[in-house]
Amino acid sequence: MILKNLKLKNFRNHRSASFGLFSTTIIIGPNTAGKTNILEAINILSRGKSFRAEHDKDTICEGAEFTRIEAEIDYENEKIKLAVIFSNTNNYLSKKFLVNNVPKRLSDFASKFTSVLFTPHDIEIIATSPSLRRRYIDSILYQSDKKYRIAFSLYEKALKRRNRMLYDMREGKKQYKRADFEYFEKILIEQGSILTSKREEFVDFVNERNKEIFDFVLFYDKSEMSEARLFKYHFEEQAAGITLVGPQRDDFIFYFPKTKKVIREFGSRGEERLTIFQLKVLEVNYLLRATGHIPVLLLDDIFSELDDTNIHKVFDLLPDQQTILTTTHREFIPKKILNREEVSIIEL
Q: Per-residue pLDDT tens for 109-138?
């Protein structure tokens, strides 16, 4: 799978831009030039949504009503054209996903192209809130498994409806009987079990693999969704106005394997960075196993995060995939990367 070109229209600071992409593409430019925006656009082609914007409408260039991302991919000797369009009209965001100009549902679109993204902010996956760790795990499984995408969508819709009912009860706006919850709870239990099972599979994959960059153990602190737990916490949920059990409450905790200590509490900043890089290598291998295709690797300002030894180690361990990376200065790029075949440099 090779991303051959990328076209952007009204995407963040890129009013109209086109980029040819090669086996290794290096994007060089000062901060605020729009380097990360290019990687963000490519990653949207994998997931159907932005990894950094709170709302996808925020990716639309100021003053414009839409943004369009287009790409051409070589996929098993076949050329595939992908497009994502976000339109914001009267403060209502609509999304379109096209494969060879044919509209697709997101659940069918997301599997056409996979990518693994590293940014300097990824260290927050370890250091901050459980919601960020859940979003990260979801982003991997969303790309790799259609069953997960469908279950995730159904679960989110049922959860939103149930939370609204609980909120209305707490605020005294409306009263519901226990039976009124049964339809949504059935969906939550069925789809939640799929989410939990797929997350368990990914955690097992991570823990079973050798880790040449940095060793760690990933613990899945799951919140099971079941009829018994929903019944047990029903009155607490009415008081809180929100669902208190289920995959939306899961957490994933990184441990040192020998001491069993939590990395975010006892690890140094450098150890947290190495944990993330090791996790990204495993993510590449997981997507390769799940989809049969090597994902495109997107590296944002990697040279500011690791020394030369660990940068070389990362590239040695990764399969022969297409790599698109950014940096502020050409001299930061190791010669080993510059000496790769088909290296292209884009200067902003």
A: 988 899 999 888 899 999 899 999 999 999
Question: Please, where in the chain does CATH 1.20.1050.90 lie?
Answer: 128-292
Backbone φ, ψ for residue 314 (5° rounding): -60, -50
pLDDT per residue as tens digits for the range 71-96: 999 987 889 999 999 999 888 999 99
Fold classification of 1-114+294-348 is: Rossmann fold (3.40.50)
What is the rounded CA–CA span in Å between residue 310 and residue 306?
A: 6
What tokens does 286 get? 């997981």
Q: 14-20 and 2-11 as β-strands: parallel, antiparallel, unpaired?
A: antiparallel
DSSP of 163-185:
HHHHHHHHTTS----GGGGHHHH
* Alpha carbon of residue 159 to chain centroid: 21
Residue owning tokens 């609509």: 94
Pick from 274, 302, 297, 271: nearest CA to 284: 297
Find out whether 104 and 38 touch, Cβ atoms under 8 Å. Answer: no
Taking the C-alpha atoms of residue 188 and residue 247, their distance in angstroms, rounded to an integer, is 9
- Give SS3 for 48: coil
CA–CA gap between residue 204 and residue 218 (Å, rounded): 8
For 97, the token pair is: 């996903």
For the chain, the C-alpha Rg in angstroms (whole number) is 22
Separation of alpha carbons 156 and 41, rounded Å: 24
All CATH 3.40.50.300 domain ranges in the chain, comma separated: 1-114+294-348
* pTM assigned to the model: 0.89
Which has the minimum average pLDDT: 23-32, 133-142, 333-342? 333-342
322: three-class secondary structure by DSSP: coil
Other CB atoms within a 10 A radius of the CB of residue 265 amount to 9
CATH architecture of 128-292: Up-down Bundle (1.20)
